[in-house]
Write a structure and sequence with these properties.
alpha/beta, 4 helices, 3 strands, about 10% strand, globular
Length: about 150
């Protein structure tokens, strides 16, 4: 099992932010940019994608964005993803996982790992985890004031 020792993180939505089509386009561009940047700056290396669902509700879920991320790893960058960690997935999201699972091959499904605060350190070093995950990083969830 690969354990993260280098930090590469992107926080997409605030937990209570409404999703607009403009925001979706910008987020997809940003994710695409970061993937492309990491891919070309680290040839031959694979990444671990951490999806932090701590405190998420169904109203925060964006199937279109999830499909974009899955497509990025399965079509645009096959073999680039070492594995994806789904952290603290609420029970209600199990139905969504069953849908997403249908998009993936058996090999791709095996790259998806589910984690909680109890076992996240099997995948990611404590120094790289946010405080709510039992780590030491205190500024993981920064917000941007759009009014400025």
């Amino acid at each position: 099992m690969i354990k993260i020792t280098m930090k590469f993180s992107t926080y997409v939505y605030k937990k209570n932010e409404n999703k607009t089509s403009e925001a979706r386009v910008l987020i997809k561009k940003y994710i695409g940019y970061k993937l492309e940047q990491y891919y070309w700056n680290n040839p031959g290396k694979r990444i671990v994608c951490l999806m932090d669902l701590y405190g998420s509700k169904m109203k925060n879920f964006d199937m279109d964005l999830l499909r974009f991320v899955v497509t990025s790893f399965t079509v645009n960058y096959p073999g680039f993803l070492a594995y994806m960690i789904i952290y603290d997935m609420p029970f209600l999201f199990n139905a969504i996982w069953r849908i997403v699972k249908g998009w993936l091959s058996q090999a791709q499904q095996e790259r998806v790992k589910f984690s909680t605060k109890k076992d996240i350190q099997e995948f990611i070093n404590k120094e790289m985890l946010w405080e709510h995950m039992g780590g030491t990083v205190s500024n993981g969830h920064q917000t941007v004031d759009k009014s400025k």
